Amino acid sequence: MASDNLYDSSPVYRMAAEQLRAVAAAIDLDPGIAARLAVPKRSLITGFPVRMDDGATRIFMGYRVQHSLTSGPSKGGLRYAPSVDLGEVAALAMWMSWKCGIMNLPFAGAKGGITCDPAALSAGEKERVTRRFTEEVLSIIGPRVDVMAPDVGTDEQTMAWIMDTYSMKIGYAVPEVVTGKPVELGGCMGRREATGRGVVYCVRAALDELHIDPVGATAVVQGFGNVGSVTCEELNKIGTKVVAIGDRYGAIRNAKGIDVAALSRHVNAPANTRRTVVGFAGADEIAADDLLTTECTVLVPAAMERVVTETVAGKLRCRVLAEGANGPTTPNADAVLAASDIYIIPDVLCNAGGVTVSYFEWVQDIQQFMWSEEDVNHELRKLMMQAFTRVRKQAVERKLSNRLAALSLGVQKVATEKLKRGLFP
Question: Site annotated as Important for catalysis: where (predicted)?
Fold first, then answer.
């Protein structure tokens, strides 16, 4: 029998819904509240035209999903990727709700996306795509309604275009309508590095709990974009060697440790048009399928969803799995990992640094009072460690996995707020 749920065709959404059902059973969630949390509050789908550089008109599909509007403005990234569809965006919006709940932020979850390959678009085409999409979703965004941020395939410049388009419509500058924008336009010092830094704060806490010295430990990182590259840099700072790194084009390995600074120069060199780690002289190429199963102390999937499958999970040779990406581990893989000694730092906790510093940026823009990067990093570490401690306490006291403990804290916060506010007639 076909489902009447618009989102169920997406395996990513089904995964998020399955996690919610597991949490609902674990914390005895009110069925009415559970039903409300299972489906996004609002979804906008738009097919919009853009004039391409060759003069042709192309139709792009765009999505903005607001999972909840209960806890405050909805908050979440905007991604440009060929795989983007309604179900994927809805799942990411749901996870963002739990993430904001875990971190005690006054936001609800949202997400947006445009189905495209940003690498195949010129700068002018990306700007026109971004501005037209902003026009299409103008009625449901705003600093007290829905605040966007960068995600896969988008960056500070994307956010600057959104801010400018929105501000031109309103009639004055509204920097607080987006986060993750350039510092010159009201962006926050340390926002670009926040997700990667948060990952490593959690890794360090996990290693401390396991009595593993980070100096001399090894790491494998999947993804060398914003999150992956900063994670590599921060791991080096605590003395951990990054021995293998991969991206969408391939993977590289050096058992003695990869020179992350040199790799960054290679990736950003003008001649490296694909911005890939492949071809780096300081490491050997390996099969992409071998990356995640490379032996290491810490494995950081920091790219896309559902990469740690049931098959891959049985082959992992790490002690800590730190989920820098959203939804990298499938429920079937979780079942396999439950029988292992791998310490999992779940995504809704591990990569929450980005939305946390986005909150700092939003507050600064509203107050028109900017913080130093030192202050930002201090507050980020404090909130990340408070959340880490709450998750571990929940896991130990209730005998739950780290994932179920983290999700239960996020879901319970949103559920309590819905219960207290009541149901509008």
Answer: 151
From CA 364, how far away is CA 359, in angstroms rounded?
Answer: 9
Indicate whether 119 and 205 sit together in one domain. no
Question: Strand pairing partners for 109?
Answer: 75
What is the rounded CA–CA span in Å between residue 33 and residue 24?
Answer: 10
Active site residue 382: no
Torsion, Cα 403 405 407 408, to 10 degrees, reads 160
Residues 6+ apart with CB under 8 A from 410: 97, 98, 99, 100, 101, 102, 348
Sequence ranges of the binding site for substrate: 75, 99, 358
Of residues 165, 203, 158, 202, the one with CA closest to residue 181: 158
Strand partners, 282: none
Same domain? For 129 and 262 the reply is no
Name residues whose C-beta falls within 8 Å of residue 185's C-beta, 6 or more positions apart in sequence. Answer: 160, 163, 175
Cite the annotated binding site for NAD(+) by residue number: 195, 226
Is a pLDDT exceeding 90 seen at residue 425?
no
For 89-94, what is the mean pLDDT? 98
Closest CA to 357 of 336, 378, 337: 378
Phi, psi of 258 (to 5 degrees): -90, 135
Mention every residue, 6+ apart, whose C-beta is less than 8 A from residue 57: 49, 50, 51
Annotated binding site: 75, 99, 195, 226, 358
Please tell me the distance from the alpha carbon of residue 350 to that of residue 402, in angstroms, as a whole number.
11
369 part of a folded domain: no
pLDDT in tens, 194-221: 999 999 999 999 999 999 999 999 999 9
Which structural domain, as residue segments, surrounds residue 256?
Answer: 194-303
User: Which member of 41, 111, 413, 418 is catalytic?
Assistant: 111
Q: CA gyration radius for the chain?
A: 21
* Residues 25 and 105 both lie in one domain: yes
Structure tokens at 251: 């993977």
Total domains in the chain come to 2
Does residue 4 have a pLDDT over 80? no
Residues 164 and 40 in one domain: yes
